Amino acid sequence: MSGDERRTGGGHESGRPRETELKLALDPALAERLWRHPLWKAHAPSRTVSRQLRAIYFDTPDLQLARAGVELRVRRQGRQNIQAVKARGAYAAGLVQRDELEVPVPEALPHAVPVPERIADAALRRLVEQAVAEGLAPIFETDIRRWERSITYGGGRMTLCLDRGAVRVGEKQSPLCELEIELVDGPVGLVFDLAQELLTHVPLRVAHGGKSKRGYDLLLDRQPRPEKAEKPALSRQMMLEDVLALSVRSCLKQILANEPIICQGDDPEGVHQMRVGLRRLRSLFTVFTPVLPAAQTEHFKAELKWLAGELGTARDYDVFRDEIVRPVQARFSTAPGMAGLLKDADLVGAQAYERARTAIADRRYTRLLLDLSRWIAEAGWREQNLTETGAQLFAPARDFADALLEQRGRKLRKNGKRLLAGPPADRHLLRIHVKKMRYAAEFFSELYPRKKTGPYLKRLAALQEVLGHMNDVAVAENLLLPKEGAGNSGKDVQRNVQRGHAVGLVLGWHGRAAWEHGRELDKLWRRLQASDSFWRKPSASDRL
Question: The pTM is what?
Answer without folding.
Answer: 0.89
